[in-house]
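Subject: Sanity check before I submit

Could someone independently write out the structure tokens for this chain? I want to compare against mine line by line before I put it in a report. The sequence has 86 residues.
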Amino acid sequence: MYPNHLSAGASFFIFLMVMLIVLVSVVITIIPYWKIFTKAGFSPWLSLLVLVPIANIVILYVVAFSEWNIRPATPPSIPQPPAPMP
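---
Independent answer below. Compare away.
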């Protein structure tokens, strides 16, 4: 065996680690876009377009320059103070 070659097990382990890093990176990228699209009134599934090379730039401009369907926040309900004792 050549001293500069990795065994099959080591190569597979390195492959798994690289794939795990890629998967974590994809999830970390998708989650913020998912929340932004939901808050803007778009389908959250559009966040998957971030993974497509040219579509990510197009969808960024579409979201940035479109009218957002923002729902007004409901005011917090403040409980009434107790009635004074007679």
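---
OP: Matches mine. For the report I'm noting this point. The mean pLDDT is 84.
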